[in-house]
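CO-FOLDING WORKSHEET

Operator: S.A.
Ligand of interest: adenosine-5'-diphosphate
Run index: 230
Mode: holo prediction, single chain
Checklist:
[x] sequence pasted
[x] SMILES validated
[ ] output reviewed
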Amino acid sequence: MLTVRNLKVEIAGVEVLRDVGFSLAAGKATVMVGRNGAGKTTTLRAIMGLLPWKAGSVRIDGTELGPLPGHARAGLGIGYAPEDRRLIADFTVEENILVPALVRRMSAAERTRRLDEVYSLLPQLAVMRARPGGGVSGGQGKIVALGRALMLADKVLLLDEPFQGLAPALALEYARTLAHLHSNKRDIAILVTESSPKLLNSIADATLHIERGEIESLASPGDVGGLQHA
Ligand SMILES: Nc1ncnc2c1ncn2[C@@H]1O[C@H](COP(=O)(O)OP(=O)(O)O)[C@@H](O)[C@H]1O
Ligand SMILES: [Mg+2]
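OUTPUT RECEIVED:
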């Protein structure tokens, strides 16, 4: 599905990613764990074409993404929820979820089909669809950002530290939502970054440890607990 090999990224002359490589497979949730500054956000931004890279390759189903500018990647089926996943306050929840589809000039029929799928996977969004983006809580806002990313995630869903700033009860609720999504949408690969692995142990099919811009180790399949179906 998505394969990253020997990715190197420099920011302001500093090697931020030294050697990042991993593969994501359809139906699998991969968790990338690393402390602040390890390179998680940089990895996701590089995959999204938001940062140039010095060396390495990123392929989705065999297509090399390196030469493609960011906008050309939009059609490749990668959904992305950035670390700073603010909603547009004056748009309703539904309008916020629709933004990526509008940017991609999807047909109305396609938008509706995808929106319906998002609502069926994340029913709590249907309940708050008419509320203004500025009027939802922090925890709800993260679910909206998840739905927004799902709109384009035909193949890969990238979630950058979705638990950051959530109180423990809300983080647990988010983890349950993610587990539900993972068990009900098996045709995509999910990558979630996190600074502490605890909450995601239950949904991780594989764990990657990133340290100083390098993937340190891969969990062996024997270490990985199965998905706890929520
Ligand atoms: N725009 C930037 N300018 C300078 N350094 C940056 C910039 N963005 C990230 N870095 C550096 O790159 C490293 C990796 O950052 P990041 O990918 O944000 O880590 P993480 O998401 O794991 O916390 C850090 O050392 C950070 O200081
Ligand atoms: Mg980060």
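REVIEW:
The beta strands are 2-11, 14-24, 29-33, 55-60, 63-64, 78-81, 156-159, 189-194, 206-211, 214-218.
The helical segments are 40-47, 70-73, 93-103, 108-121, 123-127, 138-150, 168-184.
[x] output reviewed
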